[in-house]
């Protein structure tokens, strides 16, 4: 018996093939590989449940910062002291601590500079020559000097005695300074304007590395492409700048009466109660502040993983109220130079900021900071808790897009604190996805353009790209846009619109955000959560879209009318050619202008490479098309459509004319043919009957078993062919 043949024709196989195996080409799609079990590398633990939520013994360490810094405008130098209270909530005793010194990226001999190719890079200082990197003046633990070692962008502090677990506290004080690059890896820098320099300051103080239950110490160096993985805590920053400067920063300004005049304070109070943008410091007042000396601005942000700020004498400032769920309020603020002003440019920045924050808060999770500040600088776009930097030349649709994207990061990774060094797609990709929904919602779709997802297949699934799960430092720089942003964002859109549906997806996604707010999820926590909440098996999708770089290619293989007559209905055959299966949507357009849509669930592809279904209709078909709404990327869209002009004429028959019993004397096998609902069925011996498809010229096929049956014109004999072997039967 040939084990490749289904049981329903096993009798034919036994009598006619005598154990021979007919060689067949292995299809590209392997359903066993796509759906094989044991996708998850481990079961649940005490810290991470198999359901995708933090385990009953989940822990994470915390880092609180008291930061005191001053800005030397002429030297572009930041000098200050970072006081860090580090709490070890892990069960482990720690004999050393690791900190991040990201400014060391700009040191001449840094690893980051070493990996910049001759062709240049977005990352780094764009060839600027200066003495970059931290100057560490002292490191103290509990007030006493302590031994430390600096390796590129990391500092290891050796502890005189182990820091106990489950609540042990280390108090670290670091005195430091650095010269700011003018272009700091597109994340910070100094921008000249006609009314003064704009300083956008980030990665400006030593920060604790994360110690977690997955990797222990996370000490990957900062080489430019990969972003950040940080502990949560409360941060207070006292920032001393020239007295004619205005400072904006993460969190809440604590001393507004000391830094603003009475008119400016009144305008702030007006903005806090206004849904329309209120001008705090208009262009007409720039240059009027002739104060000399310095001024200190004090900020505080709670439950945050980072702090950034910006300072300039040339800022225009405006603001408006943000309305949050449960009656809470925040404040949208914009800071920009006169070169960026105008109703078609940064004059709408606060409107954009307010709209983005309100949308994400109502759709996913409430915004958690007292202000959301958009700063015009020389960065293409960069995000920090409560504050973002966007390019000063952006305007119109471009300014909406970058503002919306950077503030979307306040959900990923500011609220949901994933590891950006390893999994850029968990912040950039998730954010790209939610940006699409917010753009559709903004101002009745002012900038929204419906994307033809189907046409992105050749771009997103090219062999030239690495898999999504490759870290950003481990992929070509030209691949980062596709693999960190667009492909994972498209993956979530496919999951929402095609696989789960918006209602199930949105519920699961909200629960994921709520579970992991201010915590550290892994990709597996996300995968587990989405499956558990949605109640669907999705390992085939994670495996194909994120872990591997499988391609999607589905096609309309054949369209045939039953017995050659459209009045009997049609049989449609679709194929899954690519390694990644998808639920399949098939739309039939009839010649009378009506349509019929058939949805094929993913379960069909768990044991089939192609699928034939019948459409009960008495109408002539004009077109059959897969994915009519263009929701799924496909590498070959040419095979997604069948048109009536492609059809070959088929002679019409009466199936009852072919009914009867046929025998073969040598094998003593009998095959019985009978009509059921207009379809001819065959039955061999005592086995289950099987449907036959008419292909013209008195010929029927059963493709699953590679069987062809040809009736003679007088219906007295049949020729049964399997592969290259042929047998004759006579009618009894």
Low-confidence stretches: 1-27
| Molecular shape | elongated
Question: What percentage of the residues does DSSP assign to strands (E)?
Answer: 25-35%
Give the class from helix and strand content and strand pairing.
alpha+beta
Q: Summary?
A:
This is M1 family peptidase. This protein is α+β, with helices and mostly antiparallel strands. Among the domains are: 59-211 and 220-231, Immunoglobulin-like; 554-646, Immunoglobulin-like, CATH 2.60.40.10; 655-731, Lipocalin (Beta Barrel), CATH 2.40.128.50.
How would you characterize the overall build of this protein?
α10 packs across α11 (502-516) and α11 (502-516) crosses α12. The longest helix has 21 residues, at 480-500. Helices cover 18% and strands 33% of the residues. The radius of gyration is 33 Å and the shape is elongated. Among the domains are: 59-211 and 220-231, Sandwich (Immunoglobulin-like); 554-646, Sandwich (Immunoglobulin-like), CATH 2.60.40; 655-731, Lipocalin (Beta Barrel), CATH 2.40.128.50. The two termini are 27 Å apart. It has a nine-stranded antiparallel beta sheet, with helices on one face. Strands 5-4-8-2-1-15-19-17 form an eight-stranded mixed beta sheet. By secondary structure, the chain is α+β, with helices and mostly antiparallel strands.
């Amino acid at each position: 018996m040939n084990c490749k043949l289904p049981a329903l024709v096993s009798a034919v196989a036994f009598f006619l093939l005598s154990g021979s195996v007919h060689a067949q080409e292995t299809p590209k799609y392997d359903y066993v590989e796509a759906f094989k079990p044991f996708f998850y590398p481990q079961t649940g633990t005490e810290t991470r449940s198999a359901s995708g939520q933090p385990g009953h013994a989940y822990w994470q360490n915390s880092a609180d910062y008291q930061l005191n810094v001053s800005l030397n405008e002429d030297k572009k130098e930041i000098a200050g002291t970072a006081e860090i209270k580090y709490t070890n909530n892990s069960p482990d005793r720690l004999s050393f601590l690791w900190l991040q010194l990201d400014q060391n990226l700009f040191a001449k001999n840094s690893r980051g500079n070493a990996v910049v190719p001759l062709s240049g890079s977005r990352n780094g200082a764009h060839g600027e020559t200066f003495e970059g990197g931290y100057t560490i003046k002292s490191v103290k633990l509990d007030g006493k000097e302590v031994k430390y070692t600096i390796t590129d962008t990391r500092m290891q502090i050796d502890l005189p005695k182990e820091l106990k677990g489950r609540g042990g506290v280390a108090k670290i004080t670091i005195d430091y300074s650095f010269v700011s690059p003018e272009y700091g890896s597109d994340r910070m820098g100094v921008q000249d304007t006609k009314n003064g320099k704009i300083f956008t300051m980030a990665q400006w103080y030593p920060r604790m590395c994360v110690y977690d239950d997955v990797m222990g110490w996370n000490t990957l160096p900062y080489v430019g492409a990969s972003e950040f993985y940080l502990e949560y805590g409360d941060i207070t920053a006292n920032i001393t700048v020239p007295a004619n400067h205005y400072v904006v920063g993460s969190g809440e300004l604590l001393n507004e009466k000391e830094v603003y005049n009475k008119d400016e304070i009144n305008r702030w109070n007006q903005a806090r109660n206004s849904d329309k943008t209120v001008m705090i410091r208009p262009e007409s007042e720039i240059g009027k502040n002739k104060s000399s000396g310095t001024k200190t601005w004090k900020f505080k942000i709670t439950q945050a993983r980072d702090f950034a700020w910006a300072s300039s004498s040339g800022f225009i400032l405006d603001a408006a109220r943000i309305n949050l769920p449960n009656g809470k309020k925040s404040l949208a603020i914009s800071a920009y130079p006169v070169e960026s002003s105008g109703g078609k440019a940064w004059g709408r920045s606060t409107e954009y900021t307010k709209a983005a924050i309100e949308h994400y808060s109502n759709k996913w999770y409430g915004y958690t900071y007292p202000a959301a500040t958009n700063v015009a600088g020389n960065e293409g776009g960069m995000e920090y808790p409560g504050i973002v930097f966007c390019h000063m030349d952006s305007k119109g649709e471009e300014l909406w897009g970058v503002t919306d994207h950077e503030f979307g990061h306040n959900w990923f990774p500011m609220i949901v604190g994933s590891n950006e060094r390893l999994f850029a797609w968990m912040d950039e990709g998730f954010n790209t996805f939610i940006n699409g929904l917010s753009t559709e919602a903004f101002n009745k779709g002012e900038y929204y353009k419906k994307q033809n997802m189907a046409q992105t297949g050749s771009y997103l699934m090219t062999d030239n790209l690495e898999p999504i799960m490759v870290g950003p430092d481990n992929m070509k720089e030209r691949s980062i846009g596709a693999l960190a942003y667009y492909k994972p964002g498209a993956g979530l859109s496919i999951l929402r619109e095609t696989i789960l549906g918006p209602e199930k997806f949105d519920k699961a996604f909200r629960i994921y955000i709520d579970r992991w707010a201010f915590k550290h999820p892994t990709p597996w926590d996300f995968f587990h959560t989405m499956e558990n909440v949605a109640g669907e098996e999705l390992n085939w999708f994670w495996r194909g879209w994120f872990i591997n770089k499988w391609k999607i290619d589905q096609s309309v293989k054949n369209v045939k009318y039953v017995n050659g007559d459209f009045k009997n209905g049609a049989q449609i055959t679709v194929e899954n050619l690519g390694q990644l299966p998808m639920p399949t949507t098939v739309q039939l357009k009839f010649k009378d202008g009506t349509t019929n849509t058939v949805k094929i669930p993913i379960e069909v592809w768990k044991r089939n490479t192609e699928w034939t279904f019948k459409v009960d209709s008495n109408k002539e078909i004009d077109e059959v098309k897969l994915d009519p709404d263009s929701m799924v990327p496909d590498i070959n869209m040419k095979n997604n459509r069948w048109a009536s002009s492609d059809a070959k004429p088929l002679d019409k028959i009466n199936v009852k004319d072919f009914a009867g019993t046929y025998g073969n004397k040598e094998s003593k096998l009998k095959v019985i043919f009978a009509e059921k609902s207009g379809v001819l069925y065959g039955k061999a011996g005592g086995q289950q009957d099987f449907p036959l498809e008419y292909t013209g010229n008195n010929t029927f096929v059963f493709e699953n078993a590679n069987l062809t049956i040809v009736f003679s014109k007088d219906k007295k004999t049949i020729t049964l062919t399997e592969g290259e072997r042929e047998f004759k039967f006579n009618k009894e």
